Amino acid sequence: KGKGRGKKSNQEVSEEDKAALGRFLDTLRGSRRLMLISTPSRDATLFIQQTEENKRHQCELAVRKITVVTSVGEGSDATLTLRHQQLGSPLSDQSEQVLDSRLIPLLRSELGLSTSDLFSMTVTDHDIQPKRVFEAPPSSSTLFEYIDNFSSRYAEKEKERKSLPVCSKDTQDPRAENSLLRFMSKRRLLLISAPSDDDYSFQQQISALSGQECSLGMRHFAMLKLTGNGEKASGTVELLPINGRSQSEVEPLSRDMVNNLREQLKISKDYFSLVVVGKDGDVKAWFPSPLWSLDNIYDLVDSMELRVQEAKLQKRLGISCPETGGGRGGGSEEGRYPGYDEEEAEKMYM
């Protein structure tokens, strides 16, 4: 008899928790989108990376009406907090609410997250229905493209296009913006940033880039290596040959320029990052770990309208990478391309 009462009590608690979950989700449904993050601890590397990304893109998250709910830890020590991303108030002014931790297993089950000992996150539309689960922090461009493909975003994006931009670049440090001016319209940037030049991921990426100079140069890339931080920040910029045959030019970057570039592009100084920047100065892709193959970057760049025009001109002039060079594409004998004026070609691509 006693056991029967115990089972009934557990059933009542379970139904009560389900009802509480339903009430909570109803407060968001139809008006907010939910980003649910689960992490084993607050000092887990993937969680720290995602938290920093959220801080950098607080305005963009607020525009998309994102509410961030974070589940930390396991069992009786687990905590659940909520923060609404809102326009017009700094992140520090947005209070974090503590939720009932009994909702954690129900939320995780409802939205299909991984077990509590692993990092995982998902973002829902206004319907708060389970969608894609990320097992690692996505790049900001990937995340926002994913959210912007929600059907409810179409009308919002149309309104945003007809009004002044809310998340304006004009608020950024003008000194940082000047760091990009010399490259604007002339070069795409491949930035490799790490806490130090002996960082393991940094060394892996440098190794993977060996032999890619021609393929990157043909796509008008300059390669920037940023290491250290604060007073110890340093870096170099390598201007890769855009004609497939010249030698690269390597220049040092000042400490201030390295710090300003990171500030301008919202690159963390504490973690490895591989960032692709277009000729318009906007970030096109961000990778939190090294790429052994650059095919994804080449596919991304080659799909851009400006790059299509560049490739047509290069083909017309018979310009390609030598067959012995790394990366995609064959080339002319010894990589020589008569009649190609590098400066004139660069002007045509601006």
TrEMBL record:
Q: Which Pfam families does the record match to this protein?
A: DUF4174 (PF13778)
Biased segments, Acidic residues type: 340-350
Question: Under the cellular component aspect of Gene Ontology, which terms does the record hold?
Answer: basement membrane
Q: Where is this region: Disordered?
A: 319-350
The UniProt record lists the keyword Signal: yes
Keyword vocabulary terms for this entry: Signal
**InterPro entries linked:** DUF4174
What biological process terms from GO does the record include?
extracellular matrix organization; positive regulation of cell-substrate adhesion
What sequence ranges are listed for the domain DUF4174?
24-156, 180-310
Q: Spell out the PANTHER family in the cross-references.
A: COILED-COIL DOMAIN-CONTAINING 80-LIKE 2, COILED-COIL DOMAIN-CONTAINING PROTEIN 80
Q: What protein name applies here?
A: Coiled-coil domain containing 80 like 2
Gene encoding this polypeptide?
Answer: CCDC80L2
